Predict the 3D structure of the following.
Amino acid sequence: MAQAQQGRIAARLKELGVELPEAAKPIANYVPAVITGDLLFVSGQVPMRGGKIAYTGKLGAGVQVEIGQQAAQLCFINVLAQAQAMLGSLDRVARVVRLGGFIAAVPEFTQHAQVMNGASDMAVAVFDDAGRHARTTIGVPSLPGDAAVEVEAVFEIA
């Protein structure tokens, strides 16, 4: 597990019953996060739990919206793990600027925004008004490891 957290965001995560996992290692030729100026960009995170993708398949083909929301929430938790690994403390996050969501879905599926609310709702639960963000959500035919959802993020940092 990640090192012990300090501060107000750690306290908020504890209230929410969220324990951040260890930040996942990249599976290809990229870095998990980059800081430029006062922005932290976190690479897309899939719904990993215990070293395995916890939610697989496609929305609209056996994966229900509620399950997709849980997957998106877990992706955001993994985004936070990457942010904490890069920053040392999530208290350095001044605001969530943008989330990008990729939803593995059949062509007829149209509830991408509702699925991505799993991540957005978690951002607001953790950071309050500073968690309100711009967002893009798109449907894709497949994701790495057959993940149902992937979430990337941009944070303003202090």
